[in-house]
Amino acid sequence: MMRGSRLLKGKRVLQTAAGAAAILCSASAAQMLGRLPAAAQSQQVVPGPKPPQLMERQKEIALALSACPPRVADKAAVYVLETSGYVKVRDSENGFTAIVQHTVPTSQEPRCMDAEGSRTLLPRVLIIAELRAQGKSREEIQRILADGFAKGVFQPPARVGVDYMLSTENLVPNEKGEVVHFPPHVMFFAPYLTNADIGVDRSNLGEDGNPNGPAFVALEGTPHALLIVPVPVGAAAHRHLSRP
Questions:
Q1: Are 154 and 93 in contact (CB under 8 A)?
Q2: Phi (first) and psi of residue 38, to 5 degrees
Q3: Residue 187's beta-bridge partner residues?
Q4: What is the rounded CA–CA span in Å between residue 11 and residue 15?
Q5: Burial class (CB in 10 A: 0-12, 13-18, 19+), 159
Q6: 131-165 pLDDT, tens digit each
Q7: Cα distance between residue 54 and residue 51, in whole Å
Q8: How far apart are CA 9 and CA 141, in angstroms?
Q9: Cα–Cα distance between 244 and 229 in angstroms, integer?
Q10: Region of residue 219 (phi > 0: left; psi between -120 and 50: alpha; otherwise: beta)
Q11: What is the spatial distance between Cα 215 and Cα 196, in angstroms, rounded to a whole number?
Q12: How much is the pTM?
C-alpha cells in the first residue's frame, strides 16, 4: 500500500493507464448490464448487503487520496468508512472529494470526483454504505435507489466533469463477478455520448472486454455516459516529476 504520509502531502507520484466506469444505481441497471463492456459492467454490480471490511483510518485516507492528482489531493475532501457508513474527515477546499468506494464488499475503488461528481455521484455512494450498515438486502437497496432517482433525490451529472481513479490499487468486480486488479484511469462525465460519437466501434473488443481505441464510452447514450481515457504511465509520471 502507498504510504499515507506522502499522499496526505500530495507528493506521491501517481500513474495512469486504462479505464473503467462509475456505478449506475438506477432501476434500469440490471437490464443495461448485459449490453455494457467489461469495464462498465465491473461497476454495475448491484451492491450487496454485507459491509466491506474496515481499514485502518490513515491507510484508507492515503488510499482515497491516491486516486487524485497530487495538486488536487492537497485540498480534496476525504471520506472514510465506519460501521454506520462513511464519515467526512476533511472538508474540500477545491470542490473535489476522495473516497474508497466498494461496489461489492471485497472490492476497493479509490475515486476522486470533481464538484459535479460530488453533487450527483457521491450521495449514492454514501447511501449505499449507510443502507448496508443497516442490514438492508440487495433488493431493498436497489429499490431505494430507484425510488430516489424517480423522486429526483439522486441525479446523473448535468455537465461534463471528471472522476479520477489514478490509484494503482483498484480492485473491481469484472464481468464474471470476480474482484480483480484494474489499472489506473480517468473518467469524464459525458451525458448521452456514444462510442460512435468518438469514432470507436463498440463491437470491436480487446482482450479486456473493452472497445479498442484510445478511449471509449461506457453507458453510452444514457445520462450516465462516461468517457474513459487512458493516460500513458510514463508520460504521467514525467509530468508530475517535472513540476516544482
A1: no
A2: -55, -45
A3: 163, 228
A4: 13
A5: exposed
A6: 999 999 989 998 998 899 899 998 888 888 999 99
A7: 9
A8: 36
A9: 26
A10: left
A11: 12
A12: 0.73
Q: What is the per-residue pLDDT across 95-127, written as a single tens digit (0 to 9) for each?
A: 999 999 998 888 999 999 999 999 999 999 999
Which amino acid, 85?
G
Neighbour-count burial of 15, counting CB atoms closer than 10 A to its CB (0-12 exposed, 13-18 middle, 19+ buried): middle
Q: CA 67 to CA 62: how far, in whole Å?
A: 9
User: ∠ at Cα 232 (228, 235), nearest 5°?
Assistant: 135
Distance CA 244, CA 241 (A): 8
Helices (H), 76-186: 115-120, 122-133, 138-150
Sign of CA dihedral 153, 156, 160, 163: positive
